[in-house]
Amino acid sequence: MSEKTCVDSEVKEEDDLKNIKHTIMVISGKGGVGKSTVSVNLAYTLSKKGKSVGILDADIHGPTVPKLLGVSDRRLEATDDGRIKPIEVTPNLKVVSMAFLLPDSDAPVIWRGPMKYSAIRQFLQDVYWNNLDYLVVDLPPGTGDEAISIAQLTKADGALIVTTPQSVALLNSRKAIGFAQKMGIPIIGIIENMSGFICPSCGTHIDIFGEGGGLKAANEFNLPFLGKIPLDMDIYSSGEEGKVTLLSENRSKNAHVFEDLADRVLKFYKER
Ligand SMILES: Nc1ncnc2c1ncn2[C@@H]1O[C@H](COP(=O)(O)OP(=O)(O)OP(=O)(O)O)[C@@H](O)[C@H]1O
Ligand SMILES: [Mg+2]
């Protein structure tokens, strides 16, 4: 069977996913801009607001969502009827990741496109997600196999573009925008991460990666600008220590940025 034929027949199975109300793809053209950080904080904040949320870590080669959530040592199990039970972070927040299947965190995944497509299909169709309001999909950088698979297998109805202010990131975020537009996925907006740093000693605001790029890209494409997330030690260490879920409880001065982002996402779906 050709890959094209295989894809077409699998897409029909998307009916199985009807219990997922909304699928949000978190995309960037460039690596390391904070997609996973944004994905987990957004998902957790939505779950805290009473929504039923899943995170699909679609970064097959470099899955980091379990580490950010402090659940790396967990392993996937089967339900009685042979489906995959997602890992429950809180009753409202479930996650599935390649990391739960690897023997250890150093094990490489050496797979070509069709195998990645097949893994992502299983993560969608064989997982017992059980009525989600939002499935947040954390993607690897770029617009390759993983992003295409998600776009084909789900009725993704929101793309969140993550960028940083410097020109090289913006150049690539134009590609992410073009991808979403070509695939017919409505764009929720652009969020600028690592946007400025306030020196904890002297309070000086420093725009390490420049300034205003995300807003400029949003204006250029006539897309909503969803705000700026500063470079922040609490955001960094909450991920490093696998304690993303404690960020807001610790009353980090920047925890509100994810509250604001979640509100913008909810507003986007309310107004559609
Ligand atoms: N606003 C921020 N303040 C401080 N550190 C941050 C911030 N956003 C992200 N980081 C840190 O930057 C690093 C990269 O972030 P992250 O893994 O979320 O990026 P990514 O876009 O998912 O990367 P990849 O493309 O490799 O998947 C991580 O160590 C993360 O903790
Ligand atoms: Mg990532």
Task: Provide an overview of this structure.
The structure is a single chain. The chain is of the alpha/beta class and 272 residues long. The chain has a single domain, classed as 3-Layer(aba) Sandwich (Rossmann fold). 36% of the residues lie in helices and 22% in strands. The chain is built from 9 helices and 11 strands. The strands form 2 sheets. Strands 1, 2, 5, 6, 7, 8, 9, 10 and 11 form a 9-stranded mixed β-sheet that branches. A two-stranded antiparallel sheet has the order 3-4. Helix 2 (35-48) packs across helix 9, helix 4 (113-125) packs parallel to helix 5 and helix 6 (167-182) runs parallel beside helix 7. Bound molecules: adenosine-5'-triphosphate and magnesium ion (MG). The site of adenosine-5'-triphosphate has 22 residues, from helix 2, strand 9, strand 11 and helix 8.
